[in-house]
Amino acid sequence: MAKDSDFLVQMNDIYIEGRSDETWMPIINGVDLTLRRGEVLGLIGESGAGKSTLGLAAMGFCRDGVRISGGEVYFDGIDLLAAGASAKRNLLGKRIAYVAQSAAASFNPAHRLIDQHTEAPIRHGVMSRAESEKDGMELYQRLRLPNPDEIGFRYPHQVSGGQLQRAMTAMAMSCRPDLIIFDEPTTALDVTTQIEVLASIRDIVAQFNTAAIYITHDLAVVAQMADRIKVLLKGDEVEEADTRTMLTDPKEDYTKSLWAVRAFQRPQKPAVLSGATPVISVKNVTAAYGPVPVLNDVSFDIHEGRTVAVVGESGSGKSTAARCITGLLPPKQGSIEFEGQALPSDYRRRNRMQLRQAQMIYQMADTALNPRKTIGEIIGRPVQFYMGLTGAAKRKRVEELLDEIELPAHQYIDRLPSELSGGQKQRIGIARALAAEPKFIICDEVTSALDQLVAEGILRLLARLQDDLKLSYMFITHDLATVRSIADEVVVMKDGRVVEQGPKSEMFQPPHHAYTDLLLSSVPEMDPDWLTKLLAERGIENIGDAAVTKMS
Amino acid sequence: MHPVLRITLQRLALGVLTLVIVSFVIFAAVNLLPGDFAQAILGQGATPEAVEAIRNDIGLNDPFWIRYFDWLGALVSGDLGVSYSQMMFATGMGGEDIQLIPITEQIAPRFYNTMFLAGLTAIIAVPISLAVGVLAALYRGSAFDRIANITTLSSISSPEFFLAYVLTLFLAVQWQILPSLASVTPEMPLFERIYTALLPALTLTLVVTAHMMRMTRAAIINLLASPYIEMARLKGISPIQVIVKHALPNALAPIINVVALNLAYLVTGVVVVEVVFAYPGIGNLFVDAVRSRDIPVVQICCLIFASAYVLLNLTADILSILSNPRLRHPK
What we know:
By secondary structure, chain A is an alpha/beta fold. Chain A has 23 helices and 20 strands.
């Protein structure tokens, strides 16, 4: 294909490889990508699909251990793969900018925001320091950051995550580039924060007519942002179409399966008998880390065979409540009851039977499993510790547990965690919790690090186990779609307090508590006009963090 | 109170406590040394009566705790005491009228000389190590990186006296650029002083560079995978700027700590080098004092060495706290 001056970015038949263990493994296998001026292209796919790698390749950049092994990349007619390092550096930051996933990690902790903002304009001779500072404050204003004249003089740790993400967008705009690569800019944010960032990004990209590649795994988000969507799977392009066509009429089976994930829903269970003793009862718990109060008079019950979803933003006290239940953080006031009996507040004073009853499954299966132990040893440890089984009996029990989580025992029992995929590791986490034969399991954001399809598999497994073993779950999450699919009851937390609780059917029906309403309304929907409508309906002042601030 | 100030005061108090403990350890350890001053000074002619007389004279027969607290009390009030050899000299000359020279005056010029040598070495070694470390991180894996590593590692692996003699051989004997004896005197003008002390300073530079350079390199490379470094690269910043402006400020804490440890070594570990070059520093005095069991001098030297460690580590702690913007600018 000849290069075409209509396109700002033209990538032809790109092959990218990554090095692992001294061999080059393919990451991208012959993908084409074109982008016109002022156009926004959404790149979606699961983790490992090569979205970020392809996005960076559009800048002519490869991370260490990655190489572009074939194809062509043209930016505005410039052959980026043939261009020298210094020629590329003259484009980066000036005409092509990047917005990273975690703004908190991508801002240098040692420098103030404004100094990082002005760095590129000064380096490229676009503006003087004074001009760029003034321009930065204007951009902060446009991106609706609070105190735009002052916020730039803070260090990154003094600014919240959502604000940092907007400051990073401002930084990308500092030289008024022709192209910005957004690499999952809202994935690390709470829903209420995400919505403001999305609105800001969309607005400013339109104002300056900047072309953008928007990388995400969240379909509903990309539906709001992109003009066209390209779906990637394991380094191959699945299909590409304009946003509306893609949403209403996906051609490929894989795309359809992505669209269908949100369909999983469990039937509503009958109401709990009045007078039934809850498995776990949290009674008026107040807790603090040192002098910092975290929980304030929190009460909720979890009944046999039910799932209670605890939702709220980061910092609302969800995980702290779990730490109180497990006894890791003894509450200052209040008590935890198990089947009507108060548990000692400190886990060190609980006996083995009491410890056994409350097990945990963690968010990051990667770090929750000892990398030096085999799967058999990881699951065998609680089997031996709680159930007292050894030798052949222990091995048999571990094999049963592996069957339970749908991983064939003979294949997995001697492997190390590093030899498993993310979803399989999370299954091992589940088996380890089951090994104690508990009545109650705390699931702390167990699906948030997983791709949608894999997450759905985990949710289905948890649902089946609950039905088979009469387990009770406390399901900590910030993802309301997960709540909708798995919960029986919902507890909404904000700033260490329970603001609303009740059966799921009631929680998703109006009338809501104002905060619940805000949470629910902040979850992006597949409708490409959702954000526009919401902004028109409520006004920018009444969504996201702005609304939260008003409330408190 | 500002957190930095609070942490500084805490560390300072801890430093004082450490010194008190160290003073006890030194006193107890010196007390355990075999032989005593009386025997050492009398040599062959040590009759029990004579030994006993001298021991009584200099207070060696008092109980341990009394001697310790006497010594500590005098220290706190600024009196470092008088060396045994001075006391013997005074009694030998037969009278109270002879002016005793206190340890303070004995040590002061030596202390100044040692600090001068340490300072001179630091001025040469620290910038070189940092620069070589930064360049080695920038061109990691290149020939420059390997040569820097091999050179510094082989110099740290060789004994100091060997390095000292190699340098003397080339710089003083073969090419005759520098004097082989570093006998500085108080009257020397500054430049002559530097010139005279250059050979021991270069020897020490070779000894301390490796740690500092390798820590600089490692601390920087450790950060190169950070998202903010990638961000800087994607803003079109040149590689050397990325390292100096974006990686180095975040790598300072471990570097400062290694620098401080090495500076402390310069004050305390120079004995061998001072002896080789006949440099009139504390190390030389210390060796003489140990040989003649002159306990007050040994104790004070040990205490100076300990204080150097404590002070430099304290400074390093405070500087690495200051290099952390989270502590410098709380929310």
